[in-house]
Amino acid sequence: MSATRLRLTTKLLAVPAVAALVLAGCGGDDGDTNTTGDDTGDETEEASGDEPAEPVELSFSDSYSPEHAHNVCGADLMREELASNGSGIDLQIFHSSQLGPDGPDRVSAVAAGDIDIDIQGSSAISALYEPIGALDAAYVFDGPDHLFEFADSPAFDDMAADMLEQTGIRALGVWFFGMRHFTANQPIQMPDDLQGLRMRYPDSPQFLQNAEAIGANATPVAFEEVYLSLQQGVIDGQENPIPTIVDMNFDEVQSHVSLSGHQTGFVVAIIGEETWQSLSPEQQEALQASLDAARDTTRQCLEEAEQEILDGWKETGEVTVVEDVDREAFSAMAEEYFAENLEGDKLALYEQVRELAQ
Hints:
Number of helices: 15
Shape: globular
Structural class: alpha/beta
Largest sheet: 7 strands, mixed
């Protein structure tokens, strides 16, 4: 384990006690997504009265290590909150892709009810509901504030309602995943620097379009296989948020991180409608409130972790941090490409998101 990852793990494992206080207190605060009512935890206990809620076990699947913020500051805190608020929900967390590789197969498993809850990128979900893939377009969001403005907008609600009708999958909300940046064994400061590099991208239509939009030579590799592919020279570089780069030890086999910020990474929490309807109204409310509250704690943990990692790299020289990246050149290429190549509902959703940034 690298010194950077050791520091990050120690920091994140110290977070839950503080973050749990935030989680317990913000179930109905401003900024929640698709929730009803305030102070949800209290209402759940009042609604249940003296009768304990009918116990229910729900599986929660993700692709990240136990030390990743989406577990330490997200799923773990949800489990603790749901276990203590009288909801009767026993959240069973399956991290590190235990229920299958990250991607469309797990989304289909949610629709079928084989997995209760999963957190997936919109590109994976687009295998079942194509328009949502536009939300993973390069530079479609200007950052997490823009992302959450959209997540709280009628446009998101309309999209989620249409997705539910077409797929039977309910979107419970979004969690920030981090700004995606390039890594390689050389700096990437402008689009021309990508020439000749085999850059790993997820094997999804939108990510492959992202690569084409900014002139990258995309090599699809499964998330779980990226480290070995970098180590063996099958690929020359990859793109992910800073905490994920450390969480997956990519910094052990890459010398440069170029802060391109080419994508505002996020995951969508999804649940099959049949599973959702099997819960009591009080359980639905408690589950939604715990997930909404974790939206704030996961973002805080990720942003703090990113800054600590960057500071550590600059101090130790373990990794060269390239800050002088021409983001305007990359984003201009991307915007021109998507205006010409997206169509139908996907283009409409892309334009709705961009309009919020004006």
